[in-house]
Amino acid sequence: MFTPVEAAEADRLVEWGLQEDLGDAGDITSRAVIDPTTRGEARIVARQPGVVAGLPMLEVLRRRHPEFGIAAAENDGPVERGDVVAVLLGPLVTLLGLERLILNFLSHLGAIATLTSHYADAVADSRTVICDTRKTTPGWRYLEKYAVRIGGGTNHRIGLFDQVLIKDNHLAWLGEADPTPIKTAIERARNSTPPGTVVEIEVDTLEQFELAIREAPDIILLDNMSSETMAKAVARRAELGATSLLEASGGLGLAQIPELAQLGLDRVSVGALTHSAPSLDLSMELSKGRAEATS
Question: Which top-level enzyme class is recorded in the Swiss-Prot or TrEMBL entry (predicted)?
Answer without folding.
Answer: transferase
